[in-house]
Amino acid sequence: MFGEASIGYDHDFGGWVAGVLVDARYSGIRSKLDIPGGSIKGDADYGFDALARIGAKVNESTLAYVLGGYSWQHFDLHASSPVGDIVDWGSSGFSVGGGLETAVSSNMTLGLEYRYSQYEKEDFGSGGFLTDEPSFQTVRVGAKYKFN
Fold first, then answer.
1. What is the CATH classification number for the domain harbouring 54?
2. Per-residue model confidence as pLDDT tens digits over 27-74
3. Where in the sequence is the domain holding 38, given as residue range(s)?
4. Which H, E and C letters describe the chain, residue by residue?
5. How far apart are CA 92 and CA 136, in angstroms?
């Protein structure tokens, strides 16, 4: 689960819509590796995206769209006691996806979106022995308020 706040602008061209958006998120995306004597956990705790989207109107109230653009994510790798924090880093990448958004009033929309995000490979100073190249696939359900 994660929470996200977005701000953006869409322009209506009649049968299609184009726009830009920036969103910031805080997430509980985690992975855990159990090892003898403890565990190692990886967290993807916060990040942001700067995206463009373009879509076609399915009907007067529904938009089908694709999106893509720049993505940045903060990661933290830590172990159980007594080791604690191992490393934290930020990584740039990209996000692509698509979705459906439908108007429920003149200022409110509900949407369902799929997004794939890929981030740069991190080497951890090991000369290629210990690396991570994180990626996420997310399905988002959201509500948007439109300021007209």
1. 2.40.160
2. 877 888 888 888 888 888 999 999 999 999 999 999 999 999 999 999
3. 2-145
4. CEEEEEEEEEEECCCEEEEEEEEEEEEEEEEEEEECCEEEEEEEEEEEEEEEEEEEECCCCEEEEEEEEEEEEEEEEEECCCCEEEEEEEEEEEEEEEEEEEECCCCEEEEEEEEEEEECCECCCCCCCCCECCEEEEEEEEEEECCC
5. 13
* pLDDT at residue 94 is higher than 80: yes
Decide if pLDDT at 111 tops 90.
yes
Overall pTM > 0.90: no
Domain count, the chain: 1
